[in-house]
Amino acid sequence: MAAPAPTIEAVGLTVRYGPKTAVDGIDLRVDRGEVVALLGRNGAGKTSTVEALEGYRPLAAGRVRVLGLDPQSRADHRALTGRIGVMLQKGGVYPGMSPAEAVRLFARYYRDPLDPQSLLERLDLTGVAATPWRRLSGGEQQRLSLALALVGRPEVAFLDEPTAGVDPGGRLAIRGQVAELRDSGVTVVLTTHELEEAERLADRIVILNRGRVVAAGSPAQLAESDPDSARIRFAAPAGLDVVSLAAEMQAPVSEERPGEYLVAAAGGPAALARLTAWLAARDLPLRDLRTGSRLEEIFLRVTSSEDPE
Amino acid sequence: MRAWRAQVGAELRLTARRGDSVLLNLAIPVGLLVFFSVVDVLPKPAGVRHPVQFLTPGVMALAVMSTAMVSLGIATGFERQYGVLKRLGATPLGRGRLLTAKIASIAVVEIAQVAVLVGIGLALGWSPGGPVGLALPAILAATVAFAGLGLLMAGSLRAEVTLAAANGLYLLLLLLGGMIFPLSKLPTPLRDVARVLPAGALSDALHGALTAGSGVPLRAWIVLAVWAVGAPVLAARLFRWE
After folding, report:
1. Could you tell me if residue A135 is inside a domain?
2. Which of A112, A143, A155, B241 is most deeply packed, by most CB within 10 A?
3. What's the ipTM?
4. Is the domain of A78 the same as that of A187?
5. Does the beta-carbon distance from A88 to B91 stay under 8 Å?
Protein backbone atom coordinates (compact mmCIF):
# COMPACT_ATOMS: atom_id res chain seq x y z
CA MET A 1 0.00 0.00 0.00
CA ALA A 2 1.32 3.46 -0.90
CA ALA A 3 2.31 5.78 1.93
CA PRO A 4 -0.23 8.54 2.57
CA ALA A 5 0.54 11.82 0.88
CA PRO A 6 2.25 14.28 3.19
CA THR A 7 0.19 17.20 4.44
CA ILE A 8 3.06 19.55 3.66
CA GLU A 9 5.82 18.86 1.18
CA ALA A 10 8.58 21.19 0.09
CA VAL A 11 11.25 20.21 -2.39
CA GLY A 12 14.23 22.46 -3.02
CA LEU A 13 12.38 25.38 -1.44
CA THR A 14 14.36 28.55 -2.17
CA VAL A 15 13.46 32.10 -1.20
CA ARG A 16 15.53 35.10 -2.17
CA TYR A 17 15.30 38.79 -1.33
CA GLY A 18 17.22 40.42 -4.15
CA PRO A 19 20.75 39.01 -4.07
CA LYS A 20 20.27 37.57 -0.58
CA THR A 21 19.23 33.91 -0.28
CA ALA A 22 17.06 33.50 2.82
CA VAL A 23 16.06 29.85 2.24
CA ASP A 24 18.48 27.73 0.28
CA GLY A 25 16.85 24.69 -1.30
CA ILE A 26 15.37 22.95 1.72
CA ASP A 27 13.30 19.77 1.60
CA LEU A 28 10.55 19.30 4.16
CA ARG A 29 7.84 16.72 4.69
CA VAL A 30 5.20 17.00 7.38
CA ASP A 31 2.56 14.34 7.91
CA ARG A 32 -0.98 14.75 9.17
CA GLY A 33 -1.19 15.48 12.89
CA GLU A 34 2.53 16.13 13.27
CA VAL A 35 3.88 19.11 15.19
CA VAL A 36 7.09 20.27 13.56
CA ALA A 37 9.22 23.06 14.98
CA LEU A 38 11.51 25.05 12.73
CA LEU A 39 14.31 26.07 15.01
CA GLY A 40 17.04 28.53 14.22
CA ARG A 41 18.71 31.74 15.15
CA ASN A 42 17.33 35.09 13.98
CA GLY A 43 17.74 35.26 10.22
CA ALA A 44 18.09 31.49 9.78
CA GLY A 45 15.18 31.40 7.32
CA LYS A 46 12.38 30.12 9.58
CA THR A 47 9.82 32.81 8.86
CA SER A 48 10.65 32.90 5.15
CA THR A 49 10.12 29.13 4.99
CA VAL A 50 6.75 29.34 6.75
CA GLU A 51 5.67 32.29 4.64
CA ALA A 52 6.55 30.38 1.47
CA LEU A 53 4.41 27.48 2.72
CA GLU A 54 1.57 29.91 3.44
CA GLY A 55 1.90 31.42 -0.04
CA TYR A 56 3.06 34.84 1.14
CA ARG A 57 6.57 34.56 -0.31
CA PRO A 58 7.24 33.74 -3.95
CA LEU A 59 9.66 30.88 -4.52
CA ALA A 60 12.90 31.54 -6.33
CA ALA A 61 13.14 27.77 -6.95
CA GLY A 62 11.61 24.49 -5.82
CA ARG A 63 8.03 23.43 -5.24
CA VAL A 64 5.63 23.38 -2.32
CA ARG A 65 2.40 21.51 -1.68
CA VAL A 66 0.09 22.03 1.30
CA LEU A 67 -2.89 19.66 1.55
CA GLY A 68 -2.10 18.72 -2.05
CA LEU A 69 -2.46 22.32 -3.24
CA ASP A 70 0.10 24.82 -4.46
CA PRO A 71 -0.03 27.86 -2.16
CA GLN A 72 1.90 29.85 -4.76
CA SER A 73 -0.94 29.53 -7.27
CA ARG A 74 -3.67 32.12 -6.83
CA ALA A 75 -6.54 29.65 -7.28
CA ASP A 76 -5.04 27.06 -4.95
CA HIS A 77 -4.19 29.72 -2.38
CA ARG A 78 -7.81 30.83 -2.35
CA ALA A 79 -8.88 27.24 -1.74
CA LEU A 80 -6.29 26.86 1.00
CA THR A 81 -7.28 29.95 2.99
CA GLY A 82 -10.33 28.18 4.40
CA ARG A 83 -8.25 25.16 5.47
CA ILE A 84 -5.20 26.76 7.08
CA GLY A 85 -4.74 28.90 10.17
CA VAL A 86 -2.00 31.50 10.29
CA MET A 87 -0.43 33.16 13.30
CA LEU A 88 1.93 35.95 12.32
CA GLN A 89 5.04 36.69 14.33
CA LYS A 90 3.63 40.10 15.17
CA GLY A 91 0.41 42.10 14.66
CA GLY A 92 -2.27 41.06 12.21
CA VAL A 93 -5.14 42.60 14.19
CA TYR A 94 -6.80 46.01 13.88
CA PRO A 95 -5.31 48.06 16.75
CA GLY A 96 -8.71 49.45 17.74
CA MET A 97 -10.47 46.09 17.70
CA SER A 98 -11.14 44.07 20.85
CA PRO A 99 -10.54 40.30 21.08
CA ALA A 100 -14.30 39.63 21.12
CA GLU A 101 -14.84 41.69 17.97
CA ALA A 102 -11.80 40.27 16.19
CA VAL A 103 -12.71 36.63 16.87
CA ARG A 104 -16.35 37.23 15.87
CA LEU A 105 -15.23 38.98 12.67
CA PHE A 106 -12.78 36.23 11.73
CA ALA A 107 -15.44 33.59 12.52
CA ARG A 108 -17.63 35.19 9.85
CA TYR A 109 -14.95 34.52 7.23
CA TYR A 110 -15.24 30.72 7.63
CA ARG A 111 -17.97 28.22 6.82
CA ASP A 112 -17.87 26.21 10.03
CA PRO A 113 -16.08 28.29 12.64
CA LEU A 114 -15.53 27.52 16.30
CA ASP A 115 -17.77 29.31 18.77
CA PRO A 116 -16.02 32.67 19.41
CA GLN A 117 -17.00 32.81 23.07
CA SER A 118 -15.69 29.34 23.90
CA LEU A 119 -12.47 30.09 22.01
CA LEU A 120 -11.95 33.25 24.08
CA GLU A 121 -12.50 31.17 27.22
CA ARG A 122 -10.05 28.47 26.09
CA LEU A 123 -7.34 31.06 25.53
CA ASP A 124 -8.12 32.92 28.75
CA LEU A 125 -9.12 36.09 26.95
CA THR A 126 -12.57 36.67 28.46
CA GLY A 127 -11.19 39.14 31.00
CA VAL A 128 -9.90 41.38 28.20
CA ALA A 129 -12.58 40.52 25.62
CA ALA A 130 -13.61 44.18 25.27
CA THR A 131 -10.13 45.74 25.48
CA PRO A 132 -8.73 47.18 22.23
CA TRP A 133 -5.81 45.17 20.81
CA ARG A 134 -3.37 48.05 21.27
CA ARG A 135 -3.93 47.96 25.04
CA LEU A 136 -3.41 44.21 25.43
CA SER A 137 -0.19 42.84 26.89
CA GLY A 138 2.23 41.03 24.57
CA GLY A 139 1.00 37.67 25.82
CA GLU A 140 -2.66 38.58 25.33
CA GLN A 141 -1.92 39.77 21.81
CA GLN A 142 -0.20 36.46 21.02
CA ARG A 143 -3.08 34.46 22.46
CA LEU A 144 -5.56 36.48 20.41
CA SER A 145 -3.45 35.88 17.33
CA LEU A 146 -3.57 32.16 18.07
CA ALA A 147 -7.35 32.32 18.56
CA LEU A 148 -7.68 33.93 15.12
CA ALA A 149 -5.54 31.17 13.62
CA LEU A 150 -7.79 28.50 15.15
CA VAL A 151 -11.27 29.95 14.73
CA GLY A 152 -11.74 28.48 11.25
CA ARG A 153 -11.01 24.87 12.40
CA PRO A 154 -7.81 24.63 10.31
CA GLU A 155 -6.38 21.37 9.03
CA VAL A 156 -2.92 22.97 9.07
CA ALA A 157 -1.77 25.67 11.48
CA PHE A 158 1.30 27.81 10.83
CA LEU A 159 2.42 29.45 14.06
CA ASP A 160 5.28 31.93 13.77
CA GLU A 161 7.01 32.37 17.14
CA PRO A 162 3.81 31.58 19.09
CA THR A 163 5.31 32.08 22.54
CA ALA A 164 7.62 35.03 21.84
CA GLY A 165 7.20 37.63 24.57
CA VAL A 166 4.56 35.55 26.38
CA ASP A 167 4.52 35.20 30.17
CA PRO A 168 4.70 31.72 31.75
CA GLY A 169 0.92 31.48 32.17
CA GLY A 170 0.36 32.42 28.57
CA ARG A 171 2.97 29.88 27.44
CA LEU A 172 1.08 27.16 29.23
CA ALA A 173 -2.16 28.18 27.53
CA ILE A 174 -0.48 28.18 24.11
CA ARG A 175 1.26 24.85 24.72
CA GLY A 176 -2.10 23.40 25.76
CA GLN A 177 -3.67 24.56 22.53
CA VAL A 178 -0.86 23.11 20.42
CA ALA A 179 -1.26 19.78 22.24
CA GLU A 180 -5.01 19.87 21.58
CA LEU A 181 -4.39 20.57 17.91
CA ARG A 182 -2.08 17.56 17.65
CA ASP A 183 -4.60 15.36 19.46
CA SER A 184 -7.32 16.39 17.05
CA GLY A 185 -5.18 15.57 14.00
CA VAL A 186 -4.26 19.12 13.01
CA THR A 187 -0.83 19.50 11.43
CA VAL A 188 1.22 22.24 13.06
CA VAL A 189 4.32 23.97 11.78
CA LEU A 190 5.75 26.43 14.25
CA THR A 191 8.88 28.50 14.32
CA THR A 192 10.88 29.35 17.38
CA HIS A 193 14.36 30.28 18.43
CA GLU A 194 13.69 28.98 21.94
CA LEU A 195 15.12 25.51 22.33
CA GLU A 196 13.03 24.53 25.32
CA GLU A 197 9.87 25.52 23.48
CA ALA A 198 10.78 23.37 20.50
CA GLU A 199 11.59 20.41 22.73
CA ARG A 200 8.32 20.71 24.66
CA LEU A 201 5.97 21.33 21.75
CA ALA A 202 7.29 19.44 18.76
CA ASP A 203 7.23 15.83 17.60
CA ARG A 204 9.99 16.72 15.22
CA ILE A 205 12.52 19.53 15.14
CA VAL A 206 14.10 20.92 12.01
CA ILE A 207 17.13 23.08 12.73
CA LEU A 208 17.85 25.75 10.12
CA ASN A 209 21.04 27.68 9.68
CA ARG A 210 21.66 30.18 6.92
CA GLY A 211 18.59 28.94 5.08
CA ARG A 212 19.60 25.27 5.13
CA VAL A 213 18.46 22.28 7.16
CA VAL A 214 21.41 21.31 9.34
CA ALA A 215 19.67 18.74 11.57
CA ALA A 216 16.23 17.15 11.80
CA GLY A 217 14.46 14.51 13.84
CA SER A 218 12.56 13.99 17.06
CA PRO A 219 14.22 15.46 20.16
CA ALA A 220 15.31 11.90 21.11
CA GLN A 221 16.67 11.18 17.63
CA LEU A 222 18.61 14.42 17.62
CA ALA A 223 20.12 13.59 20.99
CA GLU A 224 21.10 10.05 19.89
CA SER A 225 22.53 11.18 16.58
CA ASP A 226 24.88 13.59 18.30
CA PRO A 227 28.45 12.25 18.24
CA ASP A 228 28.91 13.63 21.74
CA SER A 229 25.78 11.97 23.10
CA ALA A 230 27.65 9.56 25.41
CA ARG A 231 27.36 11.82 28.43
CA ILE A 232 25.85 11.89 31.86
CA ARG A 233 25.24 15.25 33.51
CA PHE A 234 24.18 15.83 37.04
CA ALA A 235 24.23 18.40 39.78
CA ALA A 236 25.51 17.75 43.29
CA PRO A 237 27.42 19.71 45.92
CA ALA A 238 30.46 21.51 44.55
CA GLY A 239 33.94 20.08 45.03
CA LEU A 240 33.25 16.35 44.70
CA ASP A 241 36.22 14.02 44.44
CA VAL A 242 36.09 13.62 40.67
CA VAL A 243 39.16 11.35 40.59
CA SER A 244 37.41 8.85 42.83
CA LEU A 245 34.17 9.14 40.86
CA ALA A 246 36.05 8.69 37.55
CA ALA A 247 37.60 5.50 38.91
CA GLU A 248 34.14 4.26 39.89
CA MET A 249 32.60 5.21 36.55
CA GLN A 250 35.63 4.02 34.55
CA ALA A 251 35.28 7.20 32.52
CA PRO A 252 36.55 10.79 32.75
CA VAL A 253 34.57 13.06 35.05
CA SER A 254 34.79 16.86 35.17
CA GLU A 255 33.18 19.62 37.18
CA GLU A 256 32.07 22.01 34.42
CA ARG A 257 30.78 24.67 36.78
CA PRO A 258 30.68 24.57 40.57
CA GLY A 259 28.22 21.78 41.42
CA GLU A 260 27.62 20.73 37.78
CA TYR A 261 29.34 17.53 36.61
CA LEU A 262 29.91 15.80 33.31
CA VAL A 263 30.70 12.09 32.98
CA ALA A 264 31.98 11.08 29.55
CA ALA A 265 30.09 7.81 29.47
CA ALA A 266 26.89 6.53 27.91
CA GLY A 267 23.97 6.91 30.30
CA GLY A 268 22.97 3.25 30.48
CA PRO A 269 21.37 1.68 33.59
CA ALA A 270 24.67 0.17 34.81
CA ALA A 271 26.52 3.48 34.64
CA LEU A 272 23.67 5.29 36.36
CA ALA A 273 23.58 2.64 39.08
CA ARG A 274 27.30 3.12 39.72
CA LEU A 275 26.86 6.89 39.90
CA THR A 276 23.91 6.81 42.29
CA ALA A 277 25.63 4.16 44.47
CA TRP A 278 28.77 6.31 44.68
CA LEU A 279 26.73 9.34 45.73
CA ALA A 280 24.59 7.32 48.16
CA ALA A 281 27.69 5.91 49.84
CA ARG A 282 28.75 9.47 50.59
CA ASP A 283 25.21 10.65 51.50
CA LEU A 284 25.28 13.23 48.74
CA PRO A 285 22.16 14.62 47.05
CA LEU A 286 21.62 14.23 43.32
CA ARG A 287 19.80 16.79 41.14
CA ASP A 288 19.15 17.43 37.44
CA LEU A 289 20.33 14.04 36.18
CA ARG A 290 20.41 13.98 32.37
CA THR A 291 21.83 11.57 29.84
CA GLY A 292 22.78 12.25 26.23
CA SER A 293 23.23 15.67 24.68
CA ARG A 294 21.12 18.67 25.42
CA LEU A 295 19.27 20.18 22.49
CA GLU A 296 21.13 23.36 23.28
CA GLU A 297 24.48 21.64 22.70
CA ILE A 298 23.32 20.06 19.47
CA PHE A 299 21.89 23.38 18.31
CA LEU A 300 25.08 25.27 19.08
CA ARG A 301 27.21 22.63 17.41
CA VAL A 302 25.21 22.45 14.16
CA THR A 303 24.77 26.19 13.89
CA SER A 304 28.23 27.26 14.96
CA SER A 305 30.03 26.28 11.78
CA GLU A 306 28.89 29.51 10.19
CA ASP A 307 27.54 32.69 11.69
CA PRO A 308 23.88 33.36 11.07
CA GLU A 309 22.88 35.92 8.52
CA MET B 1 -21.13 37.52 0.96
CA ARG B 2 -21.39 36.89 4.70
CA ALA B 3 -17.67 37.57 5.13
CA TRP B 4 -17.87 40.67 2.97
CA ARG B 5 -20.84 42.11 4.86
CA ALA B 6 -19.07 41.47 8.16
CA GLN B 7 -15.99 43.25 6.83
CA VAL B 8 -17.99 46.29 5.67
CA GLY B 9 -19.57 46.49 9.13
CA ALA B 10 -16.16 46.24 10.79
CA GLU B 11 -14.70 48.95 8.53
CA LEU B 12 -17.60 51.28 9.39
CA ARG B 13 -17.34 50.64 13.12
CA LEU B 14 -13.60 51.24 13.11
CA THR B 15 -14.01 54.44 11.06
CA ALA B 16 -16.64 55.74 13.50
CA ARG B 17 -14.27 55.01 16.41
CA ARG B 18 -11.25 56.80 14.99
CA GLY B 19 -11.19 60.34 16.30
CA ASP B 20 -9.21 61.61 13.31
CA SER B 21 -11.81 60.19 10.91
CA VAL B 22 -14.73 61.77 12.72
CA LEU B 23 -12.89 65.08 12.80
CA LEU B 24 -11.92 65.00 9.12
CA ASN B 25 -15.06 63.45 7.73
CA LEU B 26 -17.68 65.30 9.71
CA ALA B 27 -16.53 67.91 12.23
CA ILE B 28 -14.31 69.97 9.90
CA PRO B 29 -16.71 70.00 6.90
CA VAL B 30 -19.71 70.84 9.09
CA GLY B 31 -17.71 73.43 11.01
CA LEU B 32 -16.49 75.14 7.84
CA LEU B 33 -19.94 75.12 6.27
CA VAL B 34 -21.70 76.54 9.31
CA PHE B 35 -19.03 79.06 10.33
CA PHE B 36 -18.33 80.59 6.93
CA SER B 37 -22.03 80.58 5.98
CA VAL B 38 -22.87 82.56 9.08
CA VAL B 39 -19.71 84.71 9.16
CA ASP B 40 -19.50 86.11 5.64
CA VAL B 41 -15.78 86.86 5.39
CA LEU B 42 -14.64 84.66 2.52
CA PRO B 43 -14.55 85.85 -1.08
CA LYS B 44 -17.48 84.63 -3.20
CA PRO B 45 -17.66 84.06 -6.95
CA ALA B 46 -19.39 86.74 -9.00
CA GLY B 47 -23.18 86.48 -8.85
CA VAL B 48 -23.32 84.56 -5.57
CA ARG B 49 -25.09 86.57 -2.87
CA HIS B 50 -25.08 84.21 0.10
CA PRO B 51 -21.95 82.23 1.00
CA VAL B 52 -23.93 79.03 1.66
CA GLN B 53 -24.70 78.83 -2.08
CA PHE B 54 -21.02 78.45 -2.83
CA LEU B 55 -19.94 76.65 0.32
CA THR B 56 -22.40 73.74 0.31
CA PRO B 57 -21.15 72.12 -2.94
CA GLY B 58 -17.57 73.03 -2.06
CA VAL B 59 -17.71 71.47 1.37
CA MET B 60 -19.30 68.36 -0.14
CA ALA B 61 -16.21 68.08 -2.33
CA LEU B 62 -14.06 68.51 0.76
CA ALA B 63 -15.96 65.75 2.56
CA VAL B 64 -15.47 63.35 -0.36
CA MET B 65 -11.74 64.09 -0.39
CA SER B 66 -11.49 63.63 3.38
CA THR B 67 -13.14 60.23 3.34
CA ALA B 68 -11.80 58.72 0.15
CA MET B 69 -8.24 59.97 0.33
CA VAL B 70 -7.20 61.05 3.81
CA SER B 71 -9.22 58.72 6.01
CA LEU B 72 -8.79 55.68 3.73
CA GLY B 73 -5.09 56.36 3.18
CA ILE B 74 -4.19 56.81 6.84
CA ALA B 75 -6.25 53.83 8.03
CA THR B 76 -4.92 51.53 5.31
CA GLY B 77 -1.35 52.68 5.93
CA PHE B 78 -1.54 51.74 9.59
CA GLU B 79 -3.32 48.46 8.80
CA ARG B 80 -0.45 47.61 6.49
CA GLN B 81 2.08 48.49 9.18
CA TYR B 82 0.26 46.39 11.79
CA GLY B 83 0.15 43.36 9.47
CA VAL B 84 -3.64 43.44 9.19
CA LEU B 85 -3.64 43.43 5.40
CA LYS B 86 -1.16 40.54 5.34
CA ARG B 87 -3.18 38.54 7.86
CA LEU B 88 -6.51 39.10 6.11
CA GLY B 89 -4.91 37.94 2.86
CA ALA B 90 -4.58 34.49 4.44
CA THR B 91 -8.30 34.23 5.31
CA PRO B 92 -11.15 33.28 3.00
CA LEU B 93 -12.03 36.99 2.85
CA GLY B 94 -9.02 37.58 0.59
CA ARG B 95 -7.53 40.80 -0.68
CA GLY B 96 -10.11 41.46 -3.39
CA ARG B 97 -13.08 41.40 -1.02
CA LEU B 98 -11.13 43.39 1.56
CA LEU B 99 -10.65 46.18 -0.99
CA THR B 100 -14.27 46.15 -2.13
CA ALA B 101 -15.40 46.20 1.51
CA LYS B 102 -13.29 49.30 2.04
CA ILE B 103 -14.82 50.94 -1.04
CA ALA B 104 -18.34 50.07 0.15
CA SER B 105 -17.66 51.53 3.57
CA ILE B 106 -16.40 54.74 1.92
CA ALA B 107 -19.63 54.92 -0.08
CA VAL B 108 -21.73 54.56 3.08
CA VAL B 109 -19.75 57.29 4.87
CA GLU B 110 -20.06 59.60 1.85
CA ILE B 111 -23.82 59.10 1.67
CA ALA B 112 -24.07 60.03 5.34
CA GLN B 113 -21.79 63.06 4.84
CA VAL B 114 -23.80 64.33 1.86
CA ALA B 115 -27.07 63.85 3.77
CA VAL B 116 -25.77 65.81 6.75
CA LEU B 117 -24.26 68.59 4.64
CA VAL B 118 -27.36 68.92 2.44
CA GLY B 119 -29.53 69.12 5.55
CA ILE B 120 -27.36 71.79 7.14
CA GLY B 121 -27.03 73.67 3.85
CA LEU B 122 -30.80 73.74 3.37
CA ALA B 123 -31.26 74.85 6.97
CA LEU B 124 -28.84 77.72 6.31
CA GLY B 125 -30.72 78.80 3.21
CA TRP B 126 -29.03 76.89 0.39
CA SER B 127 -31.22 76.46 -2.67
CA PRO B 128 -29.78 73.84 -5.02
CA GLY B 129 -30.48 74.00 -8.73
CA GLY B 130 -28.95 73.00 -12.05
CA PRO B 131 -28.30 69.48 -13.35
CA VAL B 132 -28.33 67.97 -9.84
CA GLY B 133 -28.09 64.39 -11.12
CA LEU B 134 -24.59 65.05 -12.44
CA ALA B 135 -23.32 65.38 -8.87
CA LEU B 136 -23.49 61.61 -8.47
CA PRO B 137 -21.10 60.61 -11.31
CA ALA B 138 -18.80 63.46 -10.30
CA ILE B 139 -18.65 62.19 -6.71
CA LEU B 140 -18.15 58.60 -7.94
CA ALA B 141 -15.29 59.55 -10.26
CA ALA B 142 -13.67 61.70 -7.56
CA THR B 143 -14.04 58.94 -4.99
CA VAL B 144 -12.17 56.54 -7.24
CA ALA B 145 -9.48 59.14 -7.92
CA PHE B 146 -9.02 60.11 -4.25
CA ALA B 147 -9.12 56.48 -3.12
CA GLY B 148 -6.40 55.74 -5.65
CA LEU B 149 -4.27 58.54 -4.20
CA GLY B 150 -4.97 57.39 -0.64
CA LEU B 151 -4.04 53.79 -1.43
CA LEU B 152 -1.00 54.93 -3.40
CA MET B 153 0.34 56.62 -0.26
CA ALA B 154 -0.78 53.82 2.07
CA GLY B 155 0.76 51.09 -0.04
CA SER B 156 4.10 52.69 -0.79
CA LEU B 157 5.00 54.85 2.23
CA ARG B 158 5.47 54.14 5.92
CA ALA B 159 2.30 54.71 7.94
CA GLU B 160 3.70 57.78 9.69
CA VAL B 161 4.76 59.28 6.35
CA THR B 162 1.32 58.51 4.90
CA LEU B 163 -0.25 60.29 7.87
CA ALA B 164 1.83 63.40 7.26
CA ALA B 165 1.52 63.30 3.46
CA ALA B 166 -2.26 62.77 3.50
CA ASN B 167 -2.81 65.63 5.92
CA GLY B 168 -0.44 67.89 3.99
CA LEU B 169 -2.21 67.10 0.72
CA TYR B 170 -5.55 67.69 2.43
CA LEU B 171 -4.53 71.20 3.46
CA LEU B 172 -3.05 71.97 0.04
CA LEU B 173 -6.13 70.77 -1.83
CA LEU B 174 -8.42 72.52 0.64
CA LEU B 175 -6.75 75.79 -0.27
CA LEU B 176 -6.31 75.10 -3.99
CA GLY B 177 -9.43 72.99 -4.58
CA GLY B 178 -12.02 75.74 -4.96
CA MET B 179 -13.89 74.32 -2.00
CA ILE B 180 -14.03 77.33 0.29
CA PHE B 181 -12.04 79.84 -1.80
CA PRO B 182 -13.39 80.20 -5.36
CA LEU B 183 -10.88 79.17 -8.03
CA SER B 184 -11.77 82.37 -9.89
CA LYS B 185 -10.22 84.40 -7.06
CA LEU B 186 -6.83 82.66 -7.31
CA PRO B 187 -3.98 84.18 -9.36
CA THR B 188 -4.08 82.86 -12.92
CA PRO B 189 -1.05 80.49 -12.80
CA LEU B 190 -2.27 79.00 -9.53
CA ARG B 191 -5.81 78.69 -10.88
CA ASP B 192 -4.55 76.82 -13.95
CA VAL B 193 -2.73 74.35 -11.73
CA ALA B 194 -5.73 74.00 -9.39
CA ARG B 195 -8.08 73.16 -12.25
CA VAL B 196 -6.09 70.07 -13.22
CA LEU B 197 -6.12 68.72 -9.66
CA PRO B 198 -8.87 66.27 -8.71
CA ALA B 199 -10.09 68.56 -5.91
CA GLY B 200 -10.47 71.53 -8.26
CA ALA B 201 -12.22 69.39 -10.87
CA LEU B 202 -14.65 67.92 -8.31
CA SER B 203 -15.33 71.35 -6.90
CA ASP B 204 -16.01 72.73 -10.38
CA ALA B 205 -18.26 69.76 -11.17
CA LEU B 206 -20.30 70.02 -7.96
CA HIS B 207 -20.68 73.79 -8.22
CA GLY B 208 -21.83 73.32 -11.80
CA ALA B 209 -24.20 70.48 -11.00
CA LEU B 210 -25.79 72.08 -7.94
CA THR B 211 -26.05 75.72 -8.99
CA ALA B 212 -28.99 76.99 -11.03
CA GLY B 213 -28.10 78.28 -14.45
CA SER B 214 -24.75 76.56 -14.73
CA GLY B 215 -23.43 73.19 -15.89
CA VAL B 216 -20.47 70.93 -15.43
CA PRO B 217 -17.58 72.06 -17.63
CA LEU B 218 -16.16 69.40 -19.94
CA ARG B 219 -12.70 70.13 -18.57
CA ALA B 220 -13.80 69.01 -15.09
CA TRP B 221 -15.03 65.65 -16.46
CA ILE B 222 -11.80 65.09 -18.35
CA VAL B 223 -9.63 65.92 -15.32
CA LEU B 224 -11.73 63.68 -13.06
CA ALA B 225 -11.61 60.83 -15.58
CA VAL B 226 -7.82 61.05 -15.93
CA TRP B 227 -7.30 61.00 -12.16
CA ALA B 228 -9.91 58.25 -11.70
CA VAL B 229 -7.99 56.01 -14.08
CA GLY B 230 -4.43 57.09 -13.36
CA ALA B 231 -4.39 57.12 -9.55
CA PRO B 232 -5.81 53.59 -9.04
CA VAL B 233 -3.59 52.16 -11.79
CA LEU B 234 -0.53 53.70 -10.16
CA ALA B 235 -1.68 52.50 -6.73
CA ALA B 236 -2.17 48.96 -8.06
CA ARG B 237 1.34 48.95 -9.53
CA LEU B 238 3.09 50.33 -6.46
CA PHE B 239 0.97 48.95 -3.62
CA ARG B 240 2.83 46.62 -1.26
CA TRP B 241 0.66 44.58 1.06
CA GLU B 242 3.24 44.42 3.83
Report:
1. yes
2. A143
3. 0.86
4. yes
5. no
